[in-house]
Design a protein that fits this description.
With about 350 residues, the protein is α+β, with helices and mostly antiparallel strands. Helix content is about 25%, strand content about 20%. It is built from six helices and 14 strands. Helix 1 packs across helix 4.
Length: about 350
């Protein structure tokens, strides 16, 4: 029998946050690719675009005019997926047809008035202002009695469905815990109830000891390719101190978190020397007024690119019908990201 090699042999890995398994097939990374290729992002953008509905001072589709903002700008989404109005639930006795109204608020957050910048190209102080805005919105939205979850996220790049290149993210606040958050809470709570400790605190301690999947760290945060990563260059930022949400960050942690955001996004851009697409989001405690010692602040990055700036990973077939699957081992992708410089390739 051959000895196991996690960079060569197919195997499954368990994700303790979601309670799900993933199939890892590292030998498939060697196969030739003749499938779809995306267009590399080589467009040079202006600092200000008069046709952009997110640029400062411009008019949006509903006729609202943006403020002449100079750093971070937040406004209610003109086309929200959730509405604030309370409606009466529909009567339904059959458990196979469950339905419940969902209330919420959707916001857009512009990171900068500069149309041509993304997070990795912004100064650290500017990224800190983004973190401050996230914190303020978490407090403001979470204080509403019908809001129990505040999801902060960013879709970067057209391949991730982003319809406007202006640097921005979104915040969806709602009355229920979404499915993935509910799974994560259940697993973190079960671990905390059993062990009296944070699942992610124990996981991070072990990752820092092993170092094989750690990409970078500072005094307060570490970024790694998680052991259970699904996407080729998926990463996870975890706070070294156990706290539940962004309001509990101190001033040093705020700066350290902004620095880690810049580090990983610069490395992403440097990987294929392109504006690297991804979906990212913060996971933190619900805003239901309850204590949640099981929650440990963390942030996910899910980038689709696999082999180059034009070849992405597809979640189809087996992934849709059976379980998630990846072609490059987390250890190998971590090694690639770890060796990349922290200076943006455009500044060379």
């Amino acid at each position: 029998m051959q000895p196991f090699d996690n960079n060569e042999h197919p195997h499954r890995r368990f994700n303790p946050l979601t309670g799900e398994w993933i199939l890892v097939s590292p030998h498939r990374a060697k196969r030739p690719w003749q499938g779809q290729k995306e267009s590399a992002n080589t467009v040079s953008l202006p600092q200000y675009d008069p046709a952009c509905y997110l640029c400062a001072g411009n008019e949006r589709s509903d006729g609202t005019k943006n403020e002449e903002y100079t750093d971070v700008y937040v406004f209610n989404n003109d086309f929200p997926s959730l509405l604030q109005e309370e409606v009466a639930p529909q009567a339904e006795s059959n458990p196979l047809f469950q339905l419940k109204p969902e209330r919420g608020i959707n916001k857009v957050i512009c990171f900068s008035p500069r149309h041509d910048l993304t997070l990795p190209e912004m100064e650290l102080e500017a990224i800190e202002k983004v973190v401050d805005a996230w914190k303020q919105q978490y407090i403001e939205l979470g204080s509403k009695d019908f809001i129990n979850h505040v999801q902060i996220f960013e879709n970067k790049g057209a391949v991730m469905g982003c319809s406007n290149p202006h640097p921005h993210g979104q915040i969806w606040a709602q009355s229920s815990l979404p499915t993935n958050v509910e799974k994560t809470q259940a697993n973190m709570k079960a671990y905390h109830d059993t062990n009296g400790r944070s699942l992610l605190a124990d996981y991070l301690t072990e990752e820092l000891n092993r170092k094989e999947r750690i990409i970078s760290e500072n005094d307060h945060f570490a970024v790694m390719v998680p052991f259970w990563a699904t996407w080729p260059y998926e990463t996870l930022i975890i706070s070294k101190r156990h706290f539940s949400n962004i309001t509990q960050m101190n001033a040093e942690e705020r700066t350290a978190f902004a620095a880690m955001l810049k580090t990983i996004t610069v490395k992403y851009d440097n990987l294929f020397e392109t504006s690297f697409p991804y979906s990212s989001g913060i996971h933190q405690s619900p805003t239901d007024g309850q204590e949640h010692p099981e929650w440990h602040f963390h942030m996910h990055f899910y980038p689709p690119l696999l082999r180059s700036a034009t070849v992405k990973k597809f979640m189809v077939g087996y992934e849709m019908m059976a379980e998630a699957q990846r072609d490059i081992s987390p250890e190998k992708s971590a090694a690639v990201l770890r060796e990349l410089p922290e200076i943006h390739y455009k500044q060379k």
